[in-house]
Amino acid sequence: MTKIAYSAESPASLKAWLESHQTANGGEALLTTRYLPKRHEEMTGGSLYWIFEHTLIGRSPLLGFIQREDGRWHIRLEPRLIPIHTRPRRAHQGWRYLDGQDAPPDLGDDEDASDVLPPRLIGELVRLGLV
User: Fold this and answer.
1) Domain span at residue 81?
2) How many domains does the chain divide into?
3) What are the E-state strand segments in the chain?
4) What averages of pLDDT result for each successive group of 10 residues across the chain (131 residues)?
5) Residues 76, 30 contacting (CB under 8 angstroms)
6) What is the bridge-based pairing of β-strands 55-67 and 73-77?
7) How far apart are CA 32 and CA 75, in angstroms?
8) What is the pTM of this model?
9) Are 47 and 62 contacting, i.e. CB atoms less than 8 angstroms apart?
10) Angstrom distances, CA of residue 105 to CA of 41, 48, 86, 100, 127
11) How many CA atoms within 13 Å lie on the side-chain side of 66?
């Protein structure tokens, strides 16, 4: 599943937002969505991949979904951002499914996120048709 990191100022601010939920909500980060995904059962145990500036930047393990009193749904996430090999991704509203073969791999323990191009630069390279 992919989702825009809406209102995040940077990947670091997204990480800080997620980590701020480690003690709140039973240790879960909760996102709101209008509709329950039809494939919600197979998505539980997978990941939500975050898009920032037209680039997949990281993932958060997806714990499941719970319905709110107003009929909307919470997407339950582990409150952590796992760095991945960045990959260009077009912006979209809401969430979208991401097939397993299209999911970028995590950065290894010996890899540093600073070795990866910044999301803004990747977005510009995509816009120019160079990536």
Assistant:
1) 2-127
2) 1
3) 2-4, 29-33, 47-52, 55-67, 73-77, 82-88, 95-96
4) 90 91 82 92 93 92 95 94 89 87 83 58 70 60
5) yes
6) antiparallel
7) 6
8) 0.81
9) yes
10) 22, 13, 9, 10, 23
11) 10
